[in-house]
Amino acid sequence: MKIAILGHGVFGSAISSRLALNGHTIIKNTIKDCDTILVAVPSYAVSGVLMSYKNDITDQKIIICSKGFDKSGELFSVVIEREFPNNQIYFLYGPTLAEELRNGVFSIMVLAGGEGKELLKKQIELDNLYIELSDDIIGVQVGSALKNTVGIFVGLVEGAGFGENTQAFIYSKGLQEIQKIGVCLGANPNTFLGFTCAGDLFLRSRSRILGIEIGKGRAFEDVSKEMTYPKEGISSLKNILKMEGTLNMDLRFFKLIHRVVFEGMLVDEAVKKLADMIE
């Protein structure tokens, strides 16, 4: 299989190296003569990058590895299916730190989509990389996007000196809030207990590290200058708040993250306000 990789950050490079081990031909920055297009660019760039190749995209399979929402605030599946109705669209997510994936550490990923995903599973899997299949394309997208945002909140309380009890509270409450949003959008509630949401949130991700630094009392702008990778959790935070009217839901959990990161609210005040939401 000839696979075009769009996006060569840490994850794009890691998944490329694993796919090459399966005998696939990896090509970069072109989709000419490829069978499959794998997208690993920052979430805000997904639709723009694909549209830049629109004249060359015919019947290739499109696999999205980017975690987040489209820059319009819509799900990737909505935007891509609208623009590329003749292509099979899949989503490949998981609790996979790029360095461990590259080094062949035992890892699980989830491949969500419709017809053809069983064959793709066989083509992607190899020693120490296992693939679970899912039909819930909405659930895996919402969970993978918002786990980054919840990860920031978990990092905030850790950085502010709170213990594991408080971190567990944020983790659990965050999962509940993600699940509510996903179900509102039509997802299976059980998806959020699986690898792409609860599992991925467990990782000490870059989003959590961002939160830790801000939780120590540092300004987002200062921390942001030191981090060369995209802040997907921040992007998802801004997008989910844009969707409040459409969702018609209480998004106070996510508003608290915004207030700490951008409006100067103290972490302990945010924790207390979140606790007051418990019924």
Descriptive account of the structure:
By secondary structure, the protein is an alpha/beta fold. It is built from 14 helices and seven strands. A seven-stranded mixed beta sheet has the order 2-1-3-4-5-6-7, sandwiched between helices. α2 runs parallel beside α3, α6 runs antiparallel to α7 and α6 runs parallel beside α9. The chain is globular and about 55 Å long. The mean pLDDT is 94.
- Which residue ranges are poorly predicted, with pLDDT under 50 across at least 5 consecutive positions? none
Name the CATH architecture of the largest domain. Orthogonal Bundle
Q: What general outline do the C-alpha atoms trace?
A: globular
Radius of gyration, Cα only, in angstroms?
A: 19 Å
Percentage of residues in strands = 5-15%
Tally of alpha and pi helices: 14
By CATH, the superfamily of the largest domain comes out as N-(1-d-carboxylethyl)-l-norvaline Dehydrogenase, domain 2
Distance between the termini: 53 Å
The major pleated sheet works out as: 7 strands, mixed
Whole-number mean pLDDT? 94
Number of domains: 2
Which characteristics define this entry?
N-(1-d-carboxylethyl)-l-norvaline Dehydrogenase, domain 2, alpha/beta, 279 residues, seven-stranded mixed beta sheet, Rossmann fold
Write the layout of secondary structure elements.
Layout: E1 2-6, H1 10-21, E2 25-28, E3 36-39, H2 46-52, E4 61-64, H3 76-83, E5 89-93, H4 98-102, E6 107-112, H5 117-124, E7 129-134, H6 137-159, H7 164-184, H8 195-202, H9 206-215, H10 220-226, H11 232-242, H12 244-247, H13 252-263, H14 267-275
Parallel strand pairs: 1-2, 1-3, 3-4, 4-5, 6-7
Antiparallel strand pairs: 5-6
Helix pairs in contact: 2-3, 6-7, 6-8, 6-9, 6-11, 11-13, 13-14
